[in-house]
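Troubleshooting log. The previous run stalled partway through. Resubmitting the same two chains, unchanged.
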Amino acid sequence: MPPASPKPPIPDAFRPSASIYSGSPAAVPVALGLPVMAWQAVFFLAPLVFLVVITFWQVRSFRLEPAFVLDNWTRILWSTPFHRALGHTLQVAATTTVLALLLALPLAYTIAFRLSARVRDLAVSLLVVPVFSSYMLRIYAWQVVLGADGIANAVLGAIGIPKLQLLGGAFSLQVGLLTLTLPVAVLILVFAMVGVDRTLIEAAENLGCRRAQVIARVLIPSIRPAIVLAGTTTFLLAFGDYIGPLFMTGSKPPTLSILLVDTVKSGSQWPRASVVGVSMLVILVLVFALGRLAGSVRIRRRSP
Amino acid sequence: MMTPRLARGLSRTLQYGLLCLFFAFVAMPMAVIVVFSFDANRFPSIPWGGFSLVWHEAAWADPMIREAFVNSIWVGLGTAVLSTAIGFAAAYLDFRHRFFGKRLFVFAVAIPPAVPTTILGMAMLAFVSRIGLSGRLETIVACHVAVASSFAMALIRLRLGEFGRDLEPAAWNLGASPWAGLRFVVLPFCRPALIAAFFLSAAVSFDEYMIAWFVGGVHETLPVRILNQLQGQVNPKINAIGAGVLAISLALVFLARRFTNLRPEPMHGPEPRGDSA
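Second attempt completed without errors. Output:
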């Protein structure tokens, strides 16, 4: 083991030979770090870089060939289907974000402040399960529930309400996207709300704040970063989702994800599909940057 | 006029009501799949056609479904083993060492789940087919690991946060080599998190369809098989496959939860009392 820094005043016996951070030889971090770095470089970073690269390639007689043409970009960015899909996807994702936040805030509040610690843990468990289990199947189940002869119409019919067309519109799409996003948003907000310093809330209550004032003046400001995180995560999930729009609206109108998959599957137009993919990534990066800005402004002002 | 007491009661009833509706909303799709998988009717509708195992048997007898199931098991196992190993290495590196570019390193490991799998799947397909690896089960594993290792790292890093920073240096001072310290001090402490990471990465892989769909070629995992069946004609076997998939996912996630202490913790002061105020 290499000796630590040679400072004479400390007798050898009392000098720690290993510091908390880097007591082990440099070979250890290198050996541990290399596999992770190599894996992410080959199977995550390289594909994304390659995605950007092939937006400039061209397809000749159904074969992808290295080139440097801007044709793919101009064709996609100036095309009407792309504009329609872009507008539709942005609008849908924004709607989901607003709905998810409006619903998740009171839900998380009830879970964090009304339930006892034990019941709250159970609720959190029940929410972790759907986040990691098949979204595709749940979308299929909503088709069964909301279909023309589905369960919802059967129940409505039993109480005398005529058949509604529930599937295939904005309503069913939001049902699908909220299935995906709402549990995540609620979880993020529950963790943030439970983590809020109780003494702050008590102080506000002792100073005579009503509950509504406590929520508006203490709770919401102190979990603002989490609200922004819940919002951006919801936007991200809804914006990139393929299954929800595919099955809940039958791809009418198509979203960017559907446009991307169709372009890939319909032949060898990978460069154009990549343009769609890269554009989506750019939009998501912009949304996250805006979110970061929105989440950090106030905090910086508070701590000079 | 509403008295404050009545208003409070009303507000609380609304809150609990909303919460119940929310959990019904979360549970309903899963319940629908399970209930109709035991329905004798060909198409899921009300009224229920009576209890039957016919679709479960039909699904199990379908060779394509069985093959997809076996593929999913291998992909899930491979992903779980590799993600846990890689996730541990990344978490330990972040916990123990200071090095140039550390923040970038942590960011790079954490970011893959934030990229929509539609885009990631397309990018991975383009890349692996260029290097001649597309259409293999091993490739699905490799691509799943890139996403699942983020979750593994997060879980293990959380556990390491509770680990005494000076325990390992103490072991070194007592003459343990860094590898021995890792093997006999750090790994045993992390065991529950490692087990949880294993099950969670398996669950992530078991449900992932876009990447597997893009890079798998003719090799279908179970969710890919379901996706392909959903896009074809209505198939009464779907509910039965779905019930099986849900059962496995739920088991994996519950096992993962069992080994983590992932619960929201209050920062300071007493817990709020549900019924006060």
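Takeaways: The longest helix of chain B spans residues 4-37. The CA atoms of residues 68 and 221 of chain B lie 5 Å apart.
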